[in-house]
Amino acid sequence: MRYDGGVHAQRLLTLPSLLALLSLSACDSSDAAPGGCGQFSFPLSTQTSSGHLAVCDSPACGNGENPPNSGPHCASVARCGIYEEPVSRCLYVHNLEHGHAVFLYNCPDGCPDEVAKLEAAAATVPIGANGVRRALIAQDPRLPNRVAAMLWRRTYLADAADPEALRCLLAFQDTDAPEPGLACPGP
């Protein structure tokens, strides 16, 4: 049989590509870690409703996790930037819905080294169309650990921030957010 580069050759070349695509689509890659991040897992939280609440800071805010990474939230978002005080959870859940990254810390005695790691990670987050980096950093005295980093339905919790884990989490930015890529109002 002679190879003539005709239709049959195209079918033979297309079949392996098609099989590869089918095998990829059969897998749930939503939890697959990006390259070089296999040691970290950032599973998706259970899907919940994500509508706007009539009253901010309602007990119905968030998805019931601590800290909440999705769920019902305020109609407005928090300004992106660095806060020295807590930010309403109902506000920042809306930020998460827009694909913003949220970094939190709970250090009653101070933890400047941990905050510096969160700030360094936030500095790598993409800038929105309005020139504002799409991330916020704030205290959260209700955190069960010292630090948290979140995207919509994904959370990293630790007592010490791991810059590599933060980088790997941020590889998922905008992946699962219902309204990804939206700009964030600045400070």
Task: Offer a concise description of the structure.
The chain has helices at about 5-25, 90-95, 110-120, 165-170; strands spanning about 80-85, 100-105, 135-140, 145-150, 155-160. It is of the alpha/beta class and about 190 residues long.
Write up this protein.
The protein has 4 helices and 5 strands. Helix content is 26%, strand content 14%. The chain has 187 residues and is of the alpha/beta class. It is globular, with a radius of gyration of 20 Å. Helix 3 (112-122) packs parallel to helix 4 (163-170). Strands 1-3-2-4-5 form a 5-stranded mixed sheet, sandwiched between helices.
Q: Numbering strands along the chain, what is their spatial order in the largest sheet?
A: 1-3-2-4-5
Q: Using only CA atoms, what is the Rg?
A: 20 Å
Distance between the termini: 70 Å
Weakly predicted, low-confidence segments: 1-29
Helix share, percent: 25-40%
The chain-level structural class is alpha/beta
SSE pattern, N- to C-terminal = HEHEHEEEH
* Number of contiguous helices: 4
Query: Which band does the percent of strand residues land in?
Result: 5-15%
Secondary structure tally: strands: 5
Quaternary organisation of the protein chains:
single chain
Please outline the major beta sheet: 5 strands, mixed
Shape: globular
What is the average of the pLDDT values?
A: 85
Write the layout of secondary structure elements.
Layout: H1 7-26, E1 81-86, H2 89-97, E2 101-105, H3 112-122, E3 135-139, E4 147-151, E5 154-158, H4 163-170
Parallel strand pairs: 1-3, 2-3
Antiparallel strand pairs: 2-4, 4-5
